[in-house]
Design goal:
Elements: H1 18-27, H2 32-45, E1 52-55, H3 57-72, E2 84-88, H4 114-121, E3 125-130, E4 142-143, E5 147-148, H5 164-171, E6 177-181, H6 188-194, E7 197-200, E8 221-225, H7 228-238, E9 265-270, H8 279-295, E10 298-303, H9 319-330, H10 337-347, H11 351-371, E11 377-381, E12 394-396, E13 401-403, H12 404-409, H13 413-417, E14 422-426, E15 438-442, H14 448-460
Parallel strand pairs: 2-3, 2-6, 9-10, 9-11
Antiparallel strand pairs: 1-3, 4-5, 6-8, 7-8, 7-14, 11-15, 12-13, 14-15
Helix pairs in contact: 2-3, 7-14
């Protein structure tokens, strides 16, 4: 891995944050058409990353032109005016096929998902649809039908999954914003492996209508960005009740404001944390905890044997079978080998296993609620590893080789099972070069604004990395 370049060099590379793009477009310092055209040119130059399944160039340019006309007429297009957005190919756009990374979904969507409607209403320009793990059921975005998405930090490595294309697009500076989904870590794992900010929201916070399901009671939609401020802006655009979504909950959305680090109580959970970590991940985690201590936060290690990834029962993702049972029984070969074996296992679950998983999930939620009576947030590493080679299913964590799926999802999947929000942040660790290590901050239900506020304070303190892959310099 090459040493990254600093944030100050980003503008020279054509990389700007979403808030900066919108400010320039709204002020007239830039046009939406020029901004979108430049993004399309960057995407073409980076086609080797395989980040996109489809570009929507004509509609994107037409929308950009309409935004420029609105500004000329004195109308404010919204907080994401002219911002190019990469949309995971799991979310419906009217007239375009939602492939879900599959071999056989070919019917165009008949309407926009509410997520798309809200992005459009904010002035954003959805520029294309991004690659993913087949049906979002995995953590590598190595797709048997569409090919692997490649990480701009090192094209021989995975960007993580399942939202790998959206993460690769943002990390490579192709777009300032990527939209992903997260059922067990599919926003946070790509954020970690691409050096980005990734927000997983409380289940029910952002609408799931017209988002192809993996496991509906666990699915969430969230942003991938280069800065915390951008993530906060996109969150404010997407969050809110959707009456058409049975999972959507009407809960107040607090404004995002910086949170004083000196007032924080931070819990470090064991035995959940007791596993091997890659040396760079351990170094980054230790560095940030030390910085929190120095800032006046109270960091406390605690034990709760129920908050433990080794306890996840076989039936935890039983809902996946509901989506795929008929298709799979009709023709299992329409699914790639990478997920076929997993679908066979989930389809073979018996009622007792499913009931046991429901009981476990209820207990897990209760234990997290108890933890948040003592702590403002919990902190874990984001992933056990910092990178994964494409084509390999094992990772070397220093203490031996481990299967990649548990190594990448160890710290993320419990958060979905408990319906909690979490924020993954790249850490500016001085002893780690190149791709930054990352941390996960977990909050109680509906605490996205506070998590983002903590992120803003860490960003202001210089603790959040804004590194760019060295490859982009060439």
């Amino acid at each position: 891995m090459g040493v990254g370049v600093s944030r100050s060099q980003d503008r020279d590379l054509g990389i700007v944050d979403a808030v900066g793009v919108a400010r320039d477009v709204r002020s007239g310092a830039a046009t939406a058409v020029a901004t979108v055209t430049a993004a399309l040119e960057r995407i073409e130059a980076a086609h080797h990353l395989n980040a996109f399944t489809r570009l929507d160039s004509d509609r994107a340019l037409a929308r950009a032109e309409a935004i420029d006309h609105a500004i000329a007429a004195g109308t404010d297009p919204g907080p994401l005016a002219g911002v190019p957005v990469a949309l995971k190919d799991l979310i419906d756009q009217e007239g375009l096929v939602t492939t879900a990374g599959s071999s056989f979904l070919v019917e165009p969507a008949t309407a926009d998902a509410p997520v798309v409607q809200r992005l459009n209403a904010s002035g954003a320009v959805i520029i294309g649809r991004t690659g993913l793990h087949e049906f979002a059921y995995g953590f590598s975005s190595e797709n048997d039908w569409w090919g692997p998405v490649r990480n701009p930090w090192d094209s021989s490595t995975s960007p993580g999954g399942s939202s790998g294309g959206s993460a690769a697009a943002v990390a490579a500076g192709l777009t300032p914003v990527g939209i992903g989904t997260d059922t067990g870590g599919s926003v946070r794992v790509p954020a970690a492996l691409c050096g980005l900010v990734g927000l997983k929201v409380t289940h029910g916070r952002i609408p799931l209508t017209r988002v192809f399901p993996l496991a509906e009671s666990l699915d969430t939609v969230g942003p991938l960005t280069r800065t915390v401020e951008d993530a906060a802006t996109v969150f404010s655009v997407l969050a809110g009740l959707d009456v058409a979504d049975p999972w959507s909950i009407d809960h107040p959305i607090d404004p995002v404001k910086s949170v004083g680090l000196e007032s924080l109580t931070v819990g470090i959970p064991h035995p959940w944390l007791d596993r091997s970590l890659a040396a760079e991940q351990q170094a980054g985690f230790d560095h940030l905890l030390a910085a929190l201590n120095e800032a006046g936060a109270t960091v406390t290690h605690f034990d709760d044997p129920e908050i433990d990834a080794t306890a996840v029962p076989a039936g935890a993702y039983a809902e996946v079978a509901t989506v795929h049972r008929d298709w799979f029984r009709e023709d299992p070969t329409r699914y790639g080998p990478a997920i076929r074996d997993r679908l066979e296992l989930v389809l073979a679950l018996d009622p007792a296993e499913i009931a046991a998983a429901r009981r476990w999930r209820k207990l897990l939620r209760a234990r997290f609620v108890s933890a948040f009576t003592r702590f403002d947030i919990l902190a874990t590493p984001s992933t056990a590893a910092r990178s994964k080679k494409i084509g390999t299913d094992y990772l070397d964590l220093g203490a031996g080789w481990e299967p990649s799926r548990p190594a990448l999802s160890w710290f993320t999947s419990l958060v979905n099972q408990a319906d909690l929000p979490a924020l993954v942040l790249p850490i500016e660790a001085p002893r780690v070069e190149g791709l930054p290590p990352s941390i996960q901050l977990i909050g109680p239900h509906w605490s996205e604004s506070r998590l983002l506020g903590i992120g803003l304070s860490l960003e202001a303190a210089g603790l959040i990395a804004h590194r760019t892959p060295e490859r982009l310099l060439g």
